[in-house]
Amino acid sequence: MYKIILLIDFAEEYSKGLLKGISAYSRDHGPWIFCRMPLYHRETMGLDGILKWALEWGADGIVGQLYNDEDIVKIVQSGIPVIAQDFKERFKEIPNITGAYRETGQIAAEYFLKKGFKHFAYYGFGDIVWSRERAEGFEERIAAAGHSVEYFEHRKARSSVLWYYKPSSLSQWLKALPKPVALMACDDNQGQHITEACRLSGLRIPEEVAVLGVDNDVMLCELSDPPLSSIALDVEKGGYDAAKLLDHMIRNGQTEAYDIVVKPTQIVTRHSTDIYATNDTCIATSLKYIHQNIDSNLQVDEVVQQVPLSRRALEKRFHAITGYPVYKYIFNLRIEKFTQKLLDTDMSIFEIALDMGLTDSKNIARQFRQVKGCTPIEYRKRYLAGKG
Q: How many C-beta atoms surround the C-beta of residue 326 within 10 A?
């Protein structure tokens, strides 16, 4: 029975996801004994104190948020297998629980580009790996489309300050951005900073500033006003895979250790990005109606009835602005919503189809396979693998 020290932030939703995955692996292959060590021990005891405690307890492994300094060599030399959560920078000496950060930024950029935005901004930390690389991926895709990204980086503590509630440089930056602007925040905490700062500055979300976070921390996203759209990550699988790696390291030593990469799974659209950036009122009306009624087996003729245009005229303008025919836009959004329900609920394919106003679950399953390359059940298993 392994003894494992967990030195992570137990208040963060991301860390809770890792814990769920780790505990799932423990149930499947353990059981393991866990020592939940609050982060203040890192500040008060230092690495020497943590290592001394681990050796006295007889710890078999450590998963933790550690500082990137030369003291990490002491843990390596102790022989205790350790995996770091890269909350600052990646380690070279030990394996990391890291993320496909650039891919996440690229997904955000693609999402906003498909919504027709021409102005883009990023809010985060330049000196933290997960924020910096998300920004790089975001800018790479935006630049490839011929646009640029405005940046605002603050140096304040991540969650412990309230500076953004007061008149500040952030408010001035938001007001000065060209509108409408698509803004990616490095995580949901910073995304809520933006929604609060926008409210205090009199900026409308999503009409003037569309805001997208990362982590899909449901509590934070729903606390935001309006509710915050976010990129969901496969964190529980990351925790499960990290525990599997730690098991391997305990059995075989540091040989063949590798980084655990947490992948993005989907964008969960809430009100903060539920808009299409266009000055064409007919197309804006059509898009709003589509998004509001996507769960009612929506047909193209119903959309046509919402605007003073013929079907042919609407189709021509709709395609010119969005790049898609009306039916294809509805199809893509339906698959996006179906995927979201597939991963966020335990409903059957039939139940999801009914919930979306569809009577033919076999047809939606066939359409899903055309887009994703696998059946809905296979997709669910693939992304929920390792989540107990």
A: 23
